[in-house]
Amino acid sequence: MRKILAVLLVLAMVLALVPAVMAEGALEPVTLTVFIGDPGDAPKEDNKIYKMIEEKFGVTFEFEYLAGNLDETIGLKIANKDYADLFCAGNSADLAISGGAMINLLDYVSPEKTPRLWAHIEPQKARLIDKDADGNDVLYIIPNYGLADGDQIVNSVGGPAFFVQKQVLAWAGYPQIKTLNQYFDLIEKFIDANPTDANGTPYIGFAILCEDWRHFCLINPVQHLMGRPNDGEVYICVTDQNYEVTGNDPSVPYKTETFIDKPYAKAYYKKLNEEFQKGLIDQSTFTDSYDAYIAKISSGIVLGMFDQTWDFGSGTQALTDAKMYENTYAALGLVYDPEYVNGVEIEEHYVNGGLPNVRRGFGISVACQCPERIVAMWEEMLSDEWQILFNWGIEGEDYYIEDGRLLMTEEQYANLSNSEWKLENKADGIFTNSPKKQGYIMNDITIGDQVIKAGNCWEPGNQPEILFGLMNDYDKEFLSAYGYKKFGDFVNPPIELAPYGEAWQINYDPVDTEHTKFLQVQDQRLPEMIMADPAEFDAKWDAFVEEIGPSAKAFEEYMQGAVLEEVKKVVGE
Amino acid sequence: MTSVAVKPPRKSKISKTLGSQWQLMLMSVPMLLYVLLFNYAPMWGWLEAFKDYSSKNALATGNAPWIGFGNFNFLFNDPLVKTDFLLSIRNTLAMSVINLVFGTVSSILLAVLLNELRSKTFKRTVQTVTYLPHFLSMIVVVSIAQNIFATNGPLNGILRSLGLIKEDVFWLGDKKYFWWLVGVINVWKEVGWNTIIYISAMTSIDPCLYEAAAIDGAGRFQRILHVTLPGIKSTFVILLIMNIGHLMEAGFEIQYLLGRGVVYDVASTIDIFVLKYGTEKLDIGVATAAGMFKSVVAIILLIIANMTAKALDEDTLI
User: Fold this and answer.
1) Closest to A71 (Cβ–Cβ): which among B81, B152, B280?
2) Which domain holds residue B193?
3) CA–CA separation, A438 and A459 (whole Å)
4) Which domains are assigned to chain A?
5) Beta bridge pairs of residue A62
6) Which residue numbers of B have CB closer than 8 Å to A's CBs?
7) Is residue B156 part of a domain?
8) What DSSP string runs through A110-122?
9) Considering the entire predicted model, what is its pTM?
10) Which of A19, A237, A300, B235 would bridge with A242, disulfide CB 3.0–4.6 Å?
11) Is the ipTM of this complex over 0.90?
12) B255 near B270, Cβ under 8 Å?
């Protein structure tokens, strides 16, 4: 009897498996080509997560990472119609879209076909879905970041800020640095007292990266000093104060202007000119490549710069690896001193409300033979189990669960910043640019026989037990000297996202020669001006304003229209 | 060439020559195919210079309308593009001339020096050492240069310790040094390689001439001046003509790798212009027009150089 039962049981199990096996068997193994618009390394052959993807979806990947200039690479790919199946054009996504490289994902994504993906984009769909020339709804790329659940997490500044080495603040007795003048005074004093580091290498007071598209380090600060988060190359008046400091007519909604040619920008570059004369700014900074810039940061000699946190991550990583914690950076939200803006105390806003990373991430190219399969894969990958797998890894191996909380040992957490380890044990090549969950885990998840309670963070780096529990001692002391809990406390809490989002995301015609001119004149004249004899500065500034005038005007008009259009799309009439 | 009194009928001569040299003809077929395939066939692409790619969809759909000389008009008359294009022509020519002069003078000088050496081993060593940089990728060469010429780099250090400068010189970011820097980098990379051809020309000079000159009492410098240099004159002229054909190509790697906003005015070359319009802005029409303009000017320069050489009764290329 027991034997029969056993046989029946086995039979039942086999039968139960059949549909599953058949469904899986229906998937022909396929190799997808992947292009990623960032430099990087392909994963190791025996990567454990990619193995699981292959077992589950029958998909293997062939990676191509960016080598060289992004715009040019994308341009060549468009001209040759040479697209990978999964295509991430990074910051040149607009070029790829207008070049006809991408398919419209709305043919495959809908509430019925892909409930998870739809639920993922639904809250922000006004921002994400565009109209094409014929008025059809189009969605080419599901954002790789910024569709987060729960309250916004600001543990640190992830975007733009003025950065200063922690040792400079510590040396000065942990002062509050809030304005441009305070910032440069601090660096000047420090460098006077400590001209070189322990090895005798002279410190660089302030570095300005201006290579290729990374020239935002040179151009963008003005808008932040004037109290706005990152709108790219324009200043947009949202609050009363914005109108007041720019002197714009408050009756024009979302008044948009290029800031670089305005009198309030002059103050910043004049300041840089002064600091250059004092030797605080290294001449080479205007000819350094990105690699040279990162090399200088990694060696710990750059005391300060304006940048965005992600842009010098590899430098921070190198410093952390070398345990040079005092040379890592604190992000400061600086504003103009009142003297520069008619005595107005500008309110600082570097951190914006949560914003989807519109048109950044993977799209599916027109060359792809099986778009529905990729979409189905994304749909499945958005499940809680896969998201935990991508973010945290395998339970017991890469993390553990205790009282419903996701935790890591020090070693497990250290692995996450070991690039070699990651090539074997993480699937970042695919995950980084795929749709993903961020923020807080909103409901309980069962993994095996363990339960992960709601309220955990999707990303290990945000989980408070890890962030604060595993923080190095230098940082702990540094924060406690300020009485702060986290590095995000150095700046004001996020403001509400303006309806147009952030204006740097607004698409402009890449063929537009006016805009090329607009950028080129800045790249050329601003460094010249900063290095000029102070007596010639005013004349150079006036010449610059005149030279950039027409192209700035054209860009301004275009952006004003585009911003209002965006507002209309999101808010309605 | 001496004139021939009676010309035989043309046709029969050609077919006779073809017949007698058929083996040679056969051997030249692959080269002929190579030139046709890689140099003539791509000229088909010049058609794009007469199409309008300025609209976003032209490339995606592949339907770019014909616009005659519109792209050329745009290059030379559009207020925004004109200055850019003219600047890049100026820079190209300036850097080419500098490269040509520096390159030729330095390689002839090195060749003469090597030719005068007695020690074979030393000569070989110098030759090898000087031509090895030719095999380095330009990106490596430029990185080395960036380090050497950096404001806090070794060159400024040496100059300062010699007391030649007081303030560090901003080699890489000062417009007035840029062209010369490109020339210097090119010389460093190519001098040994370019020397090879001159050395081989010098070895073919009849030793009797040197002996005769020595007997007549010519010193070393006089021998160089009156035997060696005249001996390589025809090689020099041929190379000059070829190089003049390449005047419109100042190379683009160094300028591209060293070019930043601060030196944009002096660093942009026609090739960089073509690259920018063709791949960054995807206006293939304008890019092709610029490239085509470059080729046409190059052909004209080549013909002028050739005619000048002919007029001076030198060997010519065409």
Assistant:
1) B280
2) 67-311
3) 7
4) 27-151+356-465 (3.40.190.10), 160-350+484-571 (3.40.190.10)
5) A33
6) 54-57, 59-61, 78, 80-81, 146, 150-152, 168, 170, 172-173, 258, 260-265, 275, 278-284
7) yes
8) -TTT-HHHHHHHG
9) 0.84
10) A237
11) no
12) no
